[in-house]
Amino acid sequence: MSDEELRRYSRHILLKEIGKEGQERLSEGRVLLIGCGGLGTPVAMYLAAAGAGTIGLMDGDVVDESNLQRQVIHFTGDVGKPKVTSAAEKLRAINPNCRIIEIPEFLSADSASSSLLSDYDFVIDGTDRYHTKYLINDICVKNKKPFSHGGVLRYSGNAFTYLPGHACYRCIFGDEPSQNDIPTSSQVGILGTVAGMIGIIQATETIKYLTKTGELLTDALLTIDAMTWETHRISVSPSPSCRLCQSLS
Known about the structure:
By secondary structure, this protein is an alpha/beta fold. Helices cover 38% and strands 18% of the residues. Strand 1, helix 4 and strand 2 form a beta-alpha-beta unit. 40% of the residues are buried.
């Protein structure tokens, strides 16, 4: 590392569990962030500040005024701008050492391929649509790619980290529900800071994975209720009724 990098990341390097070796692993890490919204933006900002080597930003949306209440990487002047462009500008300003890749499209069944994932070490689900969350889970499980899940609605949120061979999204939440069965934040609202809290948890899990530090939220679901501050870590395990996991075993 250069002298500038040693100064920039000195507080990480002082942590004996990370040290210079862990910071170098982080600087070599390649992360794909799917969704540059309420969850994805704090993840991206903290990963850039921490010195993640490559951050891929995937989102086909543009910045809307209703996003500004919680998607803190986007400013008022960014309204109408592609989210990946807005986010990339801020990340490059935070840390020019990071390589930022802009992918201005939504994840779809066509784009969700092993070739997309092959360039990255870790995937972050920063989306707010259940169909996309199941799509991320399925393509990551099939390709044995670790990922971080985050979900928020109203005043609560949850997170877990998938590693190959462990409990996946379908193991925990079951098969995909009908779109009409699950409300969205545009219908029932969301406290903006909750998205920030869960996003920071996802960023922390990503850093821990890349630096090989600590215990991940694997086979565990962390839930937070901001109204009561009740926090639970729920143990989970691969489900024998998960058709996806069973088909790969």
